[in-house]
Structure formats: structure tokens, C-alpha cells
Write a structure and sequence with these properties.
By secondary structure, this protein is of the alpha/beta class. Helices cover 51% and strands 17% of the residues.
Length: 260
């Protein structure tokens, strides 16, 4: 079996997922307006300077500090109720097409993200992918965040999780694909036989050129409902499948086979 592993932020969606949910959390009384403004500023830094290890560590510590004491079930409910509002406008059309292409070729598709599983798991389901690998927070006996992390899905830990899943599910990583925008995901890209740099930051672009990796640029943000405009709220797997079109998919499949 083969698989395709997609980083989330700036690879599948155009913004940092944790920042994107800032306003729904503010409306629920969990964040102050000032914290949301700071998060938006962090998004600009992330967008134009990339996500190096130091910036990611600062973001992680800030999120853990702010979220200590939050109820996990409440957070999951907010995310699920606002997925349409937050995520629907910022998905890359190119990423959706690739996800459907890999599924059409029989590969399992994973989202692999440093964001919390409370965001990544429902978002992955919303996008119609098979599984999610994400950061897991420690909870107390009442289901509230302790401010500590059980598993941090970042850097080499992403690659370790991918290898674990591959061993459990019989996935051939040497025949599999991985997509990411950041040099912090070099271990993830190195774990597969077909690494692809997407919207790469400067360090990843340099590494990709040195190693002869494929480089792609995603820029078409698409509303999922635009794939089936007469049926808003339709499951994304149906909407995107119709949007791609049988003829276009067949042509792309043939092109990929010729390349291989």
C-alpha cells in the first residue's frame, strides 16, 4: 500500500489553522481581542518569514499557556461548529485536486500537522482525507488541558509517527508521497520516496533544488461550495470529486504514470 502525507498550514490551507480559529474562540469568551490581534500578527510573520523551530516553539508555548484549563470537549465543539466559516474559504484548490488524485490512485491520504488534534481531526474529516496525525495535549481527570503536551507533531516527530503508521498499516514509504512548505518538515519529506516542496520557504527551496525534489506552488484558494454551487454544505469528497471532472482526472492520472 502507498500513501500521501500532507502538511496542513500553507500546504493545504492558506493560513495557520490555530490562528484561523482565533475569532471563534474569542466569541466563545476564551480569548481577548488583544490576543486575537497578536495571533493575526503572528500569522503575518508566519506567512512571510516561514515557521522555523524558534517561532514554532514560541507559538506552542503561547498556545499551551493560554489554553491551560480549557475544556477539550468545548474546544472540539467550537471547531466543528465553525469549520465552514473558518476553513471553507482558505483551502487551496491544487491541494484538493492532489488529495483526490492520490485517492483515485488507491493511496491513503494523511494530514500531518503540528496543530492540535482537536482542530486537525475534524478538519481532515471535513476535507475528506483518510487519517490525521496531530499534536496531542495532556488532559486532567476532568478533560481540561494541563498546559503540557503528550505528543508534539513537529519536525522529526512527524517522521516517527509516519513510520509507526506505515508499519501498522503496511504502507511502503519508499513509494509514498509527502508535501510541505517548511524546512522544519525535512524529516517528513525525507521519509518518503516522492517528496514535494509546496510554496517552500527559502531553506526548503534550497534543499529541494540541491536534492532534485519536485517543487509546486499553490495559490488558488477555493470555497468548497464553489465546486458544487447549487448544494452548499455537501460533503467535500462529493463536491471536489465532481469539480475535478472525470476527463481532467483521467488526463492527470495518465500524465503522472508517464512521469513515473
Amino acid at each position: 500500500m502507498e500513501a500521501a502525507f500532507f502538511d496542513l498550514d500553507k500546504t493545504v490551507i492558506a493560513r495557520a489553522s490555530m490562528v484561523a480559529f482565533g475569532r471563534p474562540f474569542q466569541r466563545a469568551g476564551l480569548l481577548s481581542r488583544w490576543l486575537v490581534v497578536r495571533a493575526l500578527y503572528a500569522q503575518l510573520v508566519f506567512q512571510y518569514l516561514g515557521a522555523d523551530e524558534q517561532r514554532m516553539a514560541k507559538m506552542r508555548e503561547a498556545v499551551l499557556r493560554v489554553s491551560r484549563g480549557w475544556d477539550q470537549a468545548h474546544i472540539s465543539q467550537i471547531v466543528r461548529e465553525t469549520l465552514d466559516e473558518v476553513i471553507e474559504p482558505i483551502v487551496y484548490a491544487e491541494a484538493l485536486d492532489l488529495i483526490r488524485l492520490h485517492q483515485a490512485e488507491g493511496r491513503r491520504v494523511f494530514i500531518v500537522s503540528a496543530s492540535p488534534e482537536e482542530i486537525v481531526a475534524p478538519l481532515s474529516q471535513y476535507l475528506g482525507v483518510d487519517e490525521a496525525i496531530a499534536t496531542r495535549a495532556l488532559l486532567d481527570d476532568e478533560g481540561r488541558y494541563t498546559g503540557e503536551v503528550e505528543f508534539y507533531s513537529y519536525g522529526p516527530h512527524k517522521a516517527e509517527a509516519m513510520r509507526r503508521v506505515a508499519a501498522q498499516q503496511g504502507i511502503d514509504l519508499s513509494a509514498s508521497y509527502a508535501y510541505s512548505d517548511s524546512a522544519t518538515d525535512l524529516p517528513m519529506l525525507e521519509a518518503v520516496g516522492h517528496p514535494v516542496a509546496v510554496n517552500p520557504d527559502r531553506d526548503l527551496l534550497r534543499a529541494a533544488r540541491e536534492r532534485g525534489w519536485e517543487v509546486q506552488y499553490f495559490g488558488r484558494q477555493v470555497r468548497l461550495r464553489d465546486r458544487l454551487p447549487d448544494a452548499p454544505g455537501v460533503p467535500v469528497a462529493v463536491a471536489t470529486g465532481v469539480g475535478i471532472g472525470a476527463a481532467g482526472l483521467a488526463g492527470t492520472l495518465a500524465w503522472r504514470r508517464l512521469r513515473r
